[in-house]
Structure formats: C-alpha cells, structure tokens
Amino acid sequence: MPYVCQSSGGANSAKGPWDPTYYGASRPAISMTAPRSALPWSAKRILWIAVAVSAVMSLRFAMIGAWPVLIFSALDIGGLYVALHMFSRSRPPEERLEFHSDHIELERIDAKGRSSKIALPAYWTRLETQERPDGDCRLWLVFRQERHPIGICLGAAERRAIAPQIQHALQSQRN
C-alpha cells in the first residue's frame, strides 16, 4: 500500500483514525509514497534474453566486417544497464500531509531528497477532486485562488481511495 495514515503519538484502538480524540495531543498525518519495486525475475530473464540476442546479432555483423555495429550494440546495452541502475538507486518521490490545529502542511520530497513545504489555513482549505474521461483522478488542496495538487506520486485508484480520508481529516479540522 503506497500511502500510510500515521500519527506522531499513541492511538486508542476503539476510535477511528480521523476522530479528533483518537490521537490525543498528536496530529494526524498522511504519508504518500510512489510505489517502487525491483524488477521481477521474469522481467530480468527477458532483459538477459534481449542482451544475448543483441550480442549474437552484433557478432554476426562483426564477422561480415561491419564491426561498428558491435560497438553501438555494447553502448546500447550499457546505457540500458546504467538507466536501470540509476532508477533502482533513486529515492521514490514522497508527499506528507500533516494536519495541525490551525493549518495544514503539505511537504513534498523529490527523488533527489529536496523538500518543499506549503502551509494552508485548516478552516478555509478544501479538497477538490476531478474525475477525467481517461479514467484518471486528480486531487487538489484549494485555498482561495491557490490550487495545490496532491497525490502526484500515486496512481488514480490510490488517489480515489485516499480522497475520503483527506476529506474526513479536513472536516475534523473545521470542528
């Protein structure tokens, strides 16, 4: 599950996570992280087969005298390896939404670890959901004329699933 509802303190299991008395003195938070997984074994096997086929084809061209094909094939395979290695080492993007008593704080952390924070007043901020014809779902935190997209690192189904939780948290901040 790419998003997690969490708190900074203990919780009473008898009440729901968005009940204002559930967290006591702590504040509710939602952490959204892009799903990141390693390549499954079947995908690795397909890549190794593609490397073998490319090597055999390149050797065939080298044997008939077109040796630059071998060099470019090695560069292609090396470029693919470097791209996959950089992807696996990069950190997945993350968003954190914290609900304080008087404001809502949206923090975004990109793949390079850079952080940006936006604070919006809790009472006047609302959640806007847009269903698109292509099946996508977009979420925004709206305050006056400012629209801040949230859930960017999530898929459409995950944004649909987390929208009621954010809406409930906003409602509990107003009460």
Structure description:
By secondary structure, the protein is an alpha+beta fold. The chain contains three helices and eight strands, in the order ββααββββββα. The strands form two sheets. It has a five-stranded antiparallel sheet, covered by helices on one side. It has a three-stranded antiparallel sheet with strand order 6-7-8, with helices on one face. The protein starts with a strand and ends with a helix. It folds into two domains: 3-36 and 92-174, PH-domain like (Roll), CATH 2.30.29; 45-89. Helices cover 37% and strands 28% of the residues. A hairpin with a 5-residue loop joins strand 6 and strand 7 (137-143).
Features:
5-stranded antiparallel beta sheet; alpha+beta; elongated; 8 strands; 37% helix
